[in-house]
Amino acid sequence: MAAWTGADVALLAPFDERVARGVIHAPGRVRLAAFGPREPLVAMALDARLVVVAPDQPDSIVFDAPAIDEPAAMRWDDRGLDVTLCRLSGAAVHYYLRTGARSPDDPKPTGGCEGLRREAPRLKSRLTLGDFATRATGPHFSKAFELEQGRLLSTSLALAVTGDDRLDRKLLFVPRDEELRPLDPRGVAAIARIVREDGVAIVERSRTEQGVEKHELPELVVVEAGTGRRLQGARGHLLSACTDSKIAAFRPEGDRWVVFEVRSGGIIGVAKRDPGLVVGLSPSCEKLYTQRLDGTIEVWNLRGETIASPRIVAAASGFVFDAKQSAAFPGGAAGLLVALSSGEVARISEDDDTLRQLARALPRATALADGAVPGETLFADGVALWRISRDGVAERIVASPAGVAWEDVLPVRGGAALLVASVDELAVVDVAAHAMVASAPIRGRTRLLSWDKGGSALAYAPDVEGISHGVIVPYGNDAVSAIAALASNLRASPTGALELKR
């Protein structure tokens, strides 16, 4: 290595067993110095002068010629035949070190003032980082060095691998084909509904406008819940999971509704197809609830190919527009929660098919779910987010946000908190504090479902064209730790110190 001050250039070999030292006394004040790429030579830029010497013979000058004044940088050509001095503007001036004119056998110098090898990292702006630039990385990657193997090193020394999608696979649910390629490129299709049962998820894909006009049935895709990989497919309208692990859907066949198990294709039961709505399926999947155009809610027992006579549940003044399965509780059977356009929030008990009004929403319920405690019901309307106890007592948890409705609610952390979804954001409500304590601008994903045994949730956008994947909201130490390990090698110690995991 070389270091200089005034006209003295000190030469050091600091890593030798005995540190070697030497001094070159230059014929003038040294501005820049550089070692040659091949022979043991040192080039020195003086005031308007270029001098080259051999370190072992410092008093013997190999090359001496007039040069530009106040160069900003110095480069040797890779072949050692030229030295380039650079002006502050970046203009390069080359000096041929051999005596006389350049020989035809000596190529012109290749080294410019940039001084970067072809394989050296290059600084790139965010506009040239492709899909990686769309990720939420804060200010880190406004500029970054592009390294080999798809790596990017930011000017703040954050390192990322552009092709590593392991974190995406932990945080996103993307239906994929057998080769793990996304079934739908972003901006093309949508998800209508998702049901999860153990290690699989069934996705009802939204129909296109042309598909609706042709009365085509929606495509149902059975996928691995963890990877999104396609296992099989079917056609129909997705209903719900059953208590015996079946997953049910229905399809029209002439003058009847056929309820079938998605994976096996086996028929669970059939019902007469009258003009009206399919409301939902009982948790046991033994009963189908429908509603006629006059508002009458009916129930059909599902007994294979046999069509049983319907029974009237209730004559409703409004139409059911949302229905959720409801778990059994002490003193009450499993059933179906329903929200009606006339404002009623009600529950149909599966054992005797009675409809019990739980509350009246203003103007109608926008979100509906079972509470964390068996027998509790949660719903949101234009006024507030409410909890109805098993005894029918209504408790206002928190006021509804102005201008946008909560469209789904899901208990998390054992019911201590509620995850709520609107078209603008996902938010967390602290039940005991009666306050919204956190939110994230995850837009459009207004449907929530429990995703794993650790308590994580899935949020997806029902029938929103262009949003063809769901977002996983992680809960539980295992999920959070796994995601943190993929997101960063920084850790917080038990004492609160920031640690770098190598």
Mean pLDDT: 90
CATH fold-level name of the domain at 2-96: N-terminal domain of TfIIb
Work out the helix count.
3
Q: Calculate the terminal CA-CA distance, rounded to whole Å.
A: 31 Å
Instruction: Specify Rg, calculated over alpha carbons.
Output: 36 Å
Helix percentage range: under 10%
Structural classification: mainly beta
CATH C-level label of the domain at 2-96: Mainly Beta
Quantity of strands, as a count: 45
CATH architecture assignment name of the domain at 2-96:
Single Sheet
Strand content: over 45%
Major beta-sheet overview: 5 strands, antiparallel
Which stretches are poorly predicted, pLDDT < 50 over at least 5 residues?
none
Inertia-based shape:
elongated
Summed up:
By secondary structure, this protein is mainly beta. It is 4% helix and 46% strand. Among the domains are: 2-96, N-terminal domain of TfIIb (Single Sheet), CATH 2.20.25; 122-164, no CATH class.
